Amino acid sequence: VRCQEIRLEKTSRIRDLVLHTAVTAKDSRIVEDVTLKAETPTPVNLIYHFMHPWVPTITEYLAELLDGTRVEGTFTGDKAQKIDKPTRWSAVYDAPTQKGAVTYVLDAPTDDNWRTRYWDVPDVYRKHYFTTFLGRTVPADKEFHYRVVTQPFAAPQADWKAEAERTAKECATLRTARGE
Predict the structure, then answer these.
(1) What is the spatial distance between Cα 53 and Cα 125, in angstroms, rounded to a whole number?
(2) What is the DSSP annotation of 78-129?
(3) Which helix (H) or strand (E) holds 171?
(4) Contact, 120 vs 18, CB < 8 A?
(5) CB atoms near residue 134 (< 10 Å)
(6) Which bin fits 121, alpha (ψ -120 to 50), beta or left (φ > 0)?
(7) In this structure, what is the dihedral angle of CA atoms 74, 53, 34, 89, given to the nearest 10 degrees?
(8) Does pTM surpass 0.90?
(9) pLDDT tens for residues 1-34?
(10) pLDDT, tens only, 52-92
(11) Nearest C-alpha neighbor of 94 from the set 40, 29, 163, 146
(12) Which helix (H) or strand (E) holds 161?
């Protein structure tokens, strides 16, 4: 099967939370769009709208925080959560294949303490989470919108950070495009 674009849409109910999700694959990128609304105030430990399990050979990560500073490091299999802060974008790189991916946050509420996390589990995955409402109550009758784009890239190890930054800038052009 070949196509130019594929779009999956889903509406979910978890307790008193209603989520509308759309995932679009087009032009070598994946755009994920979620709206969340609580029918009644709903306490939660956390919610993760986006979760990407990357291969366990992923070796490094890089992220730009909302203030423009950078966070970077290597995956060591220590089972720790890496970054754990709001990011403008984050990237992973797999040195053995010289491939990586950038996830750019296109939209997130300013009044939600959301976070980008990478769970470093040896021999299993380097799992990317976009977490929201950490130990909070989702208020009733307010809609929250989250949108990210993930785009792959290829680069030699010496150049991967520059290529991730270039890819992030390309992804940023989607900030004003809705339903991409």
Answers:
(1) 6
(2) --PEEEEE-EEEEEEEETTTTEEEEEEEEE--TTS--EEEEEEETTTEEEEE
(3) helix 160-172
(4) no
(5) 14
(6) beta
(7) 20
(8) yes
(9) 788 999 999 999 999 999 999 999 999 999 999 9
(10) 999 999 999 999 999 999 999 999 999 999 999 999 999 99
(11) 163
(12) helix 160-172
For 30-64, b/e burial (b = at least 16 CB within 10 A) is bbbbbbbbbeeebebeebebbebebeeebbbbbbb
Handedness of CA 24, 91, 88, 79 (dihedral sign): positive
Element (H, E) at 8: strand 5-14
* 162, 104 contact by CB (below 8 A): no
Contacts of 14 (CB under 8 A, 6+ apart): none
Residue with tokens 């990407």: 52
Instruction: Answer yes or no: are the C-beta atoms of 64 and 70 closer than 8 Å.
Output: yes
Three-class SS state of 172: helix
